[in-house]
Design a protein that fits this description.
The protein has one domain. About 35% of the residues lie in helices and about 20% in strands. A three-stranded antiparallel beta sheet has the order 2-1-3. It is extended.
């Protein structure tokens, strides 16, 4: 179910960004349930009407490349 909603989100991402800007959308069955300023607000409000695990909350960006997060850390070699 969430795979279908994520595919829907990706297909409509640019339009959602154009309409809602950099916000969080809650999606279920290819329907936008709500638009929120942050993830916690989206989760809290969506849980009032929907069961956990039955919907998707996704941050809107204007391109898929911006959805990718990079993390850097120091790497310590392990000697065996």
């Amino acid at each position: 179910m969430q795979d279908m909603d994520f595919s829907y989100f990706l297909e409509n991402m640019k339009g959602l960004y154009a309409k809602y800007g950099h916000r969080f959308v809650a999606v279920k069955n290819k329907v936008i349930l709500g638009v929120y300023e942050d993830f916690n607000e989206a989760l809290e409000n969506t849980l009032k009407t929907e069961e956990l695990g039955t919907f998707l909350i996704q941050e809107c960006f204007d391109s898929e490349e911006k959805m990718i997060q990079h993390f850097q850390s120091n790497v310590t070699p392990v000697l065996a």
